[in-house]
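chain below, 401 aa
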Amino acid sequence: MAKTEAPTRQQPAGKSETPTPAPAPAKHTDHRRISDTDAPAPLYAALDLGTNNCRLLIAQPTRPGQFRVVDAFSRIVRLGEGLAASGRLSQDAMDRSIEALKICASKLKARNIRRHRLIATEACRAAENGEAFLERVTLETGLELEIINRETEARLAVSGCASLVGYDAKSVVLFDIGGGSSEIAVIRIGANRSGRLANHITHWTSLPVGVVTLSERHGGKDVTPESFAAMVAEVEGMLASFQSPAIDVLTEGNAAQGFHLIGTSGTVTTLAGVHLDLPRYDRRRVDGVWLSDDEVTAMQSRLLSWNFTERAANPCIGPDRADLVLAGCAILEAIRKRWPSTRMRVADRGLREGLLTDMMADDGAWRQRRQRRHNNSQHSTHGGHSSTIQNASGKGEGRHE
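prediction:
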């Protein structure tokens, strides 16, 4: 099962901290040797139990930095429902999560997984009974989940979105609006770009607020312009103590070039889906799309003008997110005020993709496949058979939030 992460110093909410360098790739001695150049790529699995969602991806490496999803699962469980008021995970929320995790366990057992990592985030971090709940998870599902700290969560979000940062970018602010917390990373890329984008994080913060907690405090069903402004102001207050380079430093005086935002969350994917007027949510259309600052403003205003029933009726929102999406928009608005940008890239990917990318990189999975292809090519020139490897980027199920 997954190893428990050694505790590191967690940063106070709203405070900046220079991240620790990424550790050297771990050496693994228990991996199977593959002598057959036609052998299929190994399978990796990543599970993320968040405040709002339970998500699983099973994938295999393809081209360097990419992978093909073999199986996926995503379900809204609202594990953090009522947590802000009680400080504890409720019985109903835990039961919903256990049922989802049982499905994940069956998917993992059905396949020969080389390596996996199963994580829990803010709800289990903050709850008095978070550890006890994970013990119950192990007893009832056989899964051992690790509670990751906030810095690890920020780094994984960056790793998962690395391919969406263009090579012309000099600075990026990446944010992950979750159910119970929101991670923000300032990324500055110099002349020597590392193969791991997380190594370029210069500042990061984790705000103790997400779509579930903010909507519970202010009301997510009936949102007025006044209550929306109050939500924005609350998040702005949290951001005020985050010490990071000023926007003119990040943009080097030119906000139109070399700097942009990347948003990874159900909030930004919803905005993109509504903007594209999709008849149903389509990750292939949304992931990686660019939105201008004016387009984001227009979409937020449009959602704020809708009542709960109208939001629930939209195919890119639905009843499960109708009471959360405006709280997410308020967090997004506070981020946009702090780091004005002419453009924002939408990412329908997150911690699972970061986990998979890191595990495959640590194992040298792409290097091994490149070497096998080279050997296979050499063999084919001498009358042997060459295998065809399908290359595809990761495709997940559902949305990240």
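The domain at 43-150+351-380 is CATH 3.30.420.40 (Nucleotidyltransferase; domain 5). Residues 1-37, 379-398 have pLDDT under 50 and may be disordered.
thats it, cya
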